[in-house]
Write a structure and sequence with these properties.
By secondary structure, this protein is of the alpha/beta class. It folds into 3 domains: about 130 residues, 3-Layer(aba) Sandwich (Rossmann fold), CATH 3.40.50; about 60 residues, Histone, subunit A (Orthogonal Bundle); about 70 residues, Orthogonal Bundle (Helix Hairpins), CATH 1.10.287. The chain is about 50% helix and about 10% strand. It has 13 helices and 6 strands. Strand 2, helix 2 and strand 3 form a beta-alpha-beta unit. The longest helix is centred in the C-terminal third of the chain and has 23 residues.
């Protein structure tokens, strides 16, 4: 029997954790996290990390295993996840993967090694523009040069915008073209299960979850991370809005409202990203 990786994906707050744990319990297997922020040990409340009780029910991998001070890429995740799966498939016929980071999922399923190496000088120039002109200027450049990437990537994350522009300008090829290159073959079957809900229901779940995060101490967690705010891992919805509050740029109520709004926008971009993947079997919750 071939080994199988079952990937549970979907927009933020849709219910991936509960579904993945139930599935893993029924299969008697383990879960590999593919949420790009739950990997970091300093980030807990703001990334909706599974609770201690949930982690006790099923063994999880790639949860709180790296520091935000260590750069981590989708390409590195590809290598790490493949090595881990090689070990897990010695014990299990099926392994569950769960998360909402489309770029990480693509890296594992298709491979991202064909991306060119970074151009330090160009990246420094684009980063300077982002700092001096604002990221909106770079977004408009990306929209003009590579509309597909503009629609697909998290344009609220300025590092993603810089990387997409860097590749497009340096190679003369659209960033999105690299992701449609020939996919690598994997020595296991891949099943993708996508979870979705009615938009109004999903947005209400997002709003409630943000309120719960605030009750659980997100403000204090963000304050403790303030000295590291310039690290790429912390350019994340839920933290950057509170950093603005600490700067005095907005009130706390305005910051919480912005977290809810930006999380809803992120969920919409996630669904747009996966809308192009015909391999996903969608389940309406």
């Amino acid at each position: 029997m071939p080994k199988k990786l079952t990937i549970v994906l979907g927009p933020t707050a849709v219910g991936k954790t509960d579904y993945a744990i139930s599935l893993a319990c029924s299969l008697g297997t383990e879960i590999v996290n593919c949420d790009s922020r739950q990997i970091f040990k300093e980030m807990n409340v703001g990334v909706a990390r599974p609770s201690a009780e949930e982690l006790a029910r099923v063994k999880h991998h790639f949860i709180a295993c790296r520091s935000v001070t260590e750069p981590y890429t989708a390409g590195q995740f590809e290598l790490d996840a493949l090595a881990l799966l090689d070990e897990l498939f010695k014990k299990y016929d099926t392994v569950v993967m769960a998360g909402g980071s489309g770029f990480y999922i693509d890296a594992l399923c298709k491979g991202l090694d064909d991306f060119p190496a970074a151009d330090p000088e160009l990246r420094e120039e684009l980063t300077r523009r982002a700092r001096e002109e604002g990221v909106e200027s770079l977004r408009m450049d990306l929209k003009r040069l590579d509309p597909a990437s503009y629609e697909a990537i998290d344009i609220a994350n300025w590092q993603r915008v810089v990387r997409a522009l860097e590749v497009t300008i340096a190679t003369g090829r659209k960033f999105s073209d690299f992701k449609t290159a020939s996919a690598k073959t994997r020595p296991f079957e891949i099943e993708k299960i996508g979870l979705r809900r009615d938009r109004e229901v999903l947005y209400e779940r997002i709003n409630r979850r943000v309120d719960l995060m605030m009750e659980q101490g997100l403000l204090e967690e963000a304050r403790s991370l303030l000295p590291m705010r310039d690290l790429p891992a912390l350019n994340t919805v839920g933290y950057k809005e509170l950093f603005s509050y600490f700067d005095g740029s907005c009130s706390l109520d305005e910051a919480v409202y912005a977290i809810k709004r930006n999380t809803r926008h992120y969920a919409k971009r996630q669904m747009t990203y996966w809308g192009r993947d015909g391999e996903i079997r969608w389940i309406d919750l």
